[in-house]
Each structure stands twice: as C-alpha cells, then as structure tokens.
Design a protein that fits this description.
CATH architecture of the largest domain: 3-Layer(aba) Sandwich
Mean pLDDT: 92
Helix content: 40-55%
Oligomer: single chain
Length: about 325
C-alpha cells in the first residue's frame, strides 16, 4: 500500500525540523528564502499535498492520529485507548478518538470522517464486519493503519496486526484450576464463532484435553449481567461444575455477584478465573484471579510502533502477540 507522504517525510527529505516545514506551509516570514526553496523542492519530489483544513484542526504542525475503539464502555478497551493517546500526546501528536459501540456502520462512518480530516495514521480496535476486506477505505486513502486486539482484515502486510497471546492465557487459566484439583471446569462467556472467543477458548480446550477432561463451553455476551445469570444457572442446573475460566473480567465479576446472591463461597465451593486483569479485579471481593494482559503497556507499545512507522518508515511486523501471565488471587485460591 502506497503511503501518503507526511510532514515528517518532508522534513526528513529537506533536512529541517517538522516545525520549519509547518512554518513554510503557513507562510511564516521567519523562514529564510533559501530554506523555503529547499522545503518546497522536497514537497514536490515527494508529492506532498497540504490539507489546510486538517492542519487547522490539529494545530498546524501537530500530527493527527485516528484512534477507533469498538467499546469504550469496557474498561479493558478504555485503558488501551488512554495509554495509546497519552503516548501520542507525549510525542506532540493530537488524537481523535471514536467509540463505534460494536457497530460496523458507525465504524465505517467515523473512519471516513477521519480520512476527510487528514489523519496521519490509524490505530483501530475494530468492530467485527462481514466483509473480508474490512479496511478497504483506509487502503484506498493510503494512510498507515494498524489493527489492534482484533483482526478484521486478513491483509496484514497492509494492516499490521498486534494483539495479546490469548491462547496462552486460556491455557494458563485452565491449567491453574486443574492444578488445584478441579475436574469439571467450564469456559464461560464470549460470543460463539468470534475470533477473540476462539483464541481465548483454544488454550482452555488444549489444557482440558491434555488432562483428559471434558471441555464445557457456555457462550454468551461478555457482560456482568451474563456472568451473574450464569452463576445462578450453574448453581441450579449444573452443580457438578466446580470452576470457570471466564472470557473476560466483566463476566467473572458478574459471576462473583451471582454466587454471592446464591450463598456460594467463591474460592472454596466454586473457583473463578477472569481474563484481562482490569483494575477492579484486584479490588473485588474475593479478589479475582485473572489473566493479566497489561493492556496499558500494550497500548503504549502499539502507539510507539505507529510513531516509528510514521516518523522513521519502520513498518510494524505483520503479526505481533504480546505476552500474558496468570495472577492467582482468592477467587481461585480461597483463603481468609
């Protein structure tokens, strides 16, 4: 995918600072004629086109990054977005953040709007779309874009994909519960057939199979309400199930509430492991065991990869999976 030249490219080609290029573009009298000529020659050689409306929006010499997030109501994605935005800000870039609320239609709309406003790059945690080429509008615009946390477009040579090692996380969670002596462990939550659900469940299934145990899948919306309802249902209909690996901490926190309502002591009569290790996991009661994804660090590293791409031409690897770790707390270990 041919990348649209940026103000940084012009500065590098001309051997001047980004602010000098901005001064040339804005007609500043402080720029010497010889310097202006060098910058204008570099612009012509690169085919750089000045988008004045976008420049006015972002403050002239400040780059603008589009940050498209599938669900900002979820603390996991909020933490990612905040970390990425702060990383861009520290490097002098403004960020336009849009919440798509898991809507492909809203996603297409906000991406088109950001393209019109001249963003220099995209970080997209996408809503799922049916089309195999979900980022075609971005490709046509020639704007660098990374897919993060979810992949909707298989063309990772054009749209590098960065996520977390969800498969290992599911395996660590299941092995932890099996190691505590449990034999009937369910995987609770996550929408069936969604790639992120399959990734998190794959490790769980592998651990259960390695131990010669039956995998029990109980899919559903990754919400507190679903987790609460599932806890009550397990108590009434499946008393044989001893523990759960949850799709997310939201599901797990809902299960803690449901079992509390049913009078079940989590950590002893039933053991729960969440996924993501959001801040609330360590503050709940009992404290929630969880697969730590360190999404704040992931957000920072994703933003740094985008900046290296924009400023240095260092394209990110086609696929990168950041490591995860299990944090065991009282919801699985028990204890007073």
């Amino acid at each position: 995918m041919a990348r649209r030249p940026t103000i940084v490219d012009v500065a590098r080609a001309a051997g001047v600072s980004k602010s000098t290029v901005s001064n040339v573009l804005n007609g500043s009298p402080l720029v010497r004629p010889a310097t202006r000529e060098v910058v204008e020659r570099a612009m012509g050689a690169l085919g750089y086109v000045y988008n004045r409306s976008a420049a006015n929006l972002r403050g002239g010499d400040v780059g603008l990054i589009g940050l498209v997030i599938n669900d900002l109501r979820n603390p996991f994605f909020t933490e990612f977005a905040a970390s990425a935005q702060m990383t861009f800000a520290r490097r002098g870039y403004a960020t336009v953040i849009a919440n798509t609320d898991e809507s492909p239609e809203v996603q297409a709309q906000v991406i088109a709007s950001m393209i019109e406003h001249g963003v220099s790059g995209f970080l997209i945690s996408p809503a799922y779309v049916d089309e195999p080429e979900g980022l075609e509008a971005v490709r046509r615009a020639g704007i660098p874009a990374m897919q993060v946390l979810r992949r909707i477009d298989a063309r990772t040579e054009a749209f590098p994909f960065a996520s977390l090692d969800y498969g290992t996380g599911g395996r660590l969670a299941a092995e932890h519960l099996i190691g505590l002596g449990l034999r009937r462990v369910a995987f609770v939550g996550g929408l069936a057939s969604r790639p992120v659900t399959e990734e998190r469940m794959a490790g769980y299934r592998a651990a259960m199979a390695a131990a010669g145990l039956e995998a029990i899948a109980l899919p559903g919306r990754p919400s507190r309400a679903f987790g609460r309802d599932m806890a009550l249902r397990l108590r009434a209909e499946r008393p044989d199930v001893e523990g759960a690996v949850c799709f997310s901490d939201l599901v797990a926190l809902g299960m803690l509430a449901g079992f509390a309502q049913a009078g079940v002591r989590v950590g002893e009569a039933f053991r729960v492991v969440g996924f993501d290790d959001i801040e609330e996991a360590a503050l709940s009661w009992p404290q929630l065991s969880s697969v730590r994804c360190d999404v704040a660090r992931f957000g920072r590293e994703a933003a740094e990869a985008m900046l290296a791409w924009l400023e240095e031409g260092a394209r990110p690897p086609e696929t990168r999976l950041a490591p995860v770790a299990l944090v065991a707390r009282r919801s699985s270990l028990g204890g007073a």
